[in-house]
Amino acid sequence: MPRITRASAYVPSRAIIDIGSNTVRLVIYGGPARAPDVLHNEKVTARLGKGVAENGKLGGRASAAALASLARYRTLLDLKGIVDVDVVATAAVRDAVNGAEFLEKIRALGLIPRLLSGEEEAIASAHGVIGAFPGATGLVGDLGGGSLELVDVDAGGCRHGTSLPLGTLRLPALRAGGERAFGQAIARMLKRADWQAAPGSTLYLVGGSLRAFARHAMTVSDWPIDDPHGFEMAAPQAQAIAKALARRKPELLAPVAGLSSSRLAALPNTAALLFVLIRALQPGRLVFSSWGLREGLLWDRMPPGVRTQDPLVAGAAAFTAEYGIPAATAAMVSGWTAAARLPGAAAGTEHLRLTATMLCLATAMVEPNLRGDLAREWALRKRWIGASPAERAMLAAAMIAHTGRADLPADLAALASPEQLREAQSWGFATRLCRRFSGNTAAGISGSALRVEEGLLVLAVQPQIAVLVNDGVERDLKVLAAHLGLKSAVR
Predict the structure, then answer these.
(1) What is the domain extent for residue 277?
(2) pTM, rounded to two decimals
(3) H/E element holding 211?
(4) Pair (392, 428) in one structural domain
(5) Distance between CA atoms of 440 and 446, rounded to whole angstroms?
(6) Which one of 275, 313, 403, 462 is at 20 to 30 Å from 211 when CA atoms are compared?
(7) DSSP string of 288-304?
(8) Domain identity same for 152 and 107
């Protein structure tokens, strides 16, 4: 992870307290405005929604646990000097007959809670998805402890938000009457809400229980990435896994890395709900998102100019700056290497190539003994907002090529096509060449050029810096040229 410095972007700046039906959570954010990083994340499983589901009231023990956690959070924020704090309450407090009384107790702690309506909760979750997946089009489903929010999203924003009483704490009672009755009850709720989706749409799924389902699916399919954010599944595959999982007894489920026992125990009920939703909404594919309500609140406050930034580039720029790689230097290197493209290379990948360049240059600043694991750790394990699984694999391929290796791990082929991986390798080889030749200096980069001329990959160098060309530079040039199907020359 980044080495924090005094000028670091990774300084705690804003916090959100999310008082949900199952958990009460504090998240503190820092990092770039367009791609904020979680610097502190803790929760207490108060299960406020359990009493509401049973008798319409927030239970005394659950309320006491929630208030104790909120008192701790308030003190932590004071000690850290964080004053920009959003406190939001959702379905459990909204539906409880004693919700107003509970909010007064929160105010007595010095916090200012905001009670979200069902529509506001749905829209906030949708804004989180829009922020995480620029250009997202389809529908968002956010499953919490007390409710399920559904909302349409497209380039124009979001609309038709609704909240249904289908939270994970309510599912056991709903399933008690059998699967047929369970499915019919959900169908009636969707009909009353006048909610339907265009068949073949993308269904973006938000919430800890749904990410737990994603982790299970990733495990059974030997997925090379262990971060559920951005994990994609075709609807038939997801429905088959959901159907099998819904029939399993919780105590017979095998442990899944990263899942608590409570999340594991709730998996069959979550799977049963997801099975019915896929059948009713008929999506074409499912995409799981780690960004939801809390990040939607951040999105709501982003200036328009920040929203238009590419989240992947913004996140990578802040990350690699911690390793002494200015964004301006990476941009110069990326411009210098632009000619190193395979014939027929896909268009629209410049943001990804720039990101790969930043990461490649940053790896050279790490102790050599640690570099071997960075491609997997940084590309496949770190959470990148705005990168698809295929793009993560391309970042890994570029970073591996930057070390001078042409061989790639076999599991990258499960994420990206051979053409994508070869293209990414050219980025890594070219960045290695530029770094070795110029030392990432402005004079070295501006005093030279890389171009393709009649079957040749030419490194053109001004006379005053010709001494920078050595055996290692010529070797790297030949490797890159061979990868591109060209011969090499220095002029």
Answers:
(1) 119-295
(2) 0.92
(3) helix 208-220
(4) yes
(5) 10
(6) 313
(7) EES--HHHHHHHHTS-H
(8) no
Cβ-based neighbours of 459, under 8 Å, separated by 6 or more: 433, 437, 448, 449, 450, 469, 473, 477, 488, 489, 490, 491
Return all residues near 252 (Cβ < 8 A) that are at least 6 apart: none
Q: How far is CA 206 from CA 36, 142, 190, 290, in A?
A: 18, 4, 18, 7
Q: Which of 241, 268, 295 is where one domain is finished?
A: 295
Which tokens in the block code for residue 89?
Answer: 């309450």
pLDDT digits (tens, 9 = 90+) for 363-414: 999 998 888 889 999 999 999 999 999 999 999 999 999 999 999 999 999 9
Both 166 and 279 in a single domain?
yes
Phi/psi at 210 (5° precision): -75, -35
> What contacts 432, CB < 8 A, 6 or more positions away?
360, 401, 402, 403, 404, 476
Q: How many domains does the chain have?
A: 3
> Residue 62: in which H helix or E strand, if any?
helix 60-80
For residue 166, give the CATH number of its domain. Answer: 3.30.420.150
pLDDT for 322-366, tens place per residue? Answer: 999 999 999 999 999 999 998 888 888 999 999 999 999 999 999
* Structure-block tokens of residue 141: 């489903």
As a whole number of angstroms, the distance between CA 291 and CA 360 comes to: 27
Q: Which of 295, 328, 353 is the last residue of a domain?
A: 295
354 within a domain of the structure (yes/no): yes
Q: What is the CATH number of the domain that holds 107?
A: 3.30.420.40
State whether residue 85 is helix, strand or coil: strand
Sheet holding 448-453, edge to edge: 448-453, 456-461, 487-490
CATH number at residue 462: 1.10.3210.10
CA–chain centroid gap for 93, Å, is 28
User: Which distant-in-sequence residues (6+ apart) come within 8 Å of 20 by Cβ?
Assistant: 48, 49, 90, 91, 92, 144, 145, 146
Whole-angstrom distance, CA of residue 362 vs CA of residue 371: 10
**Domain assignment of residue 305, yes or no:** no
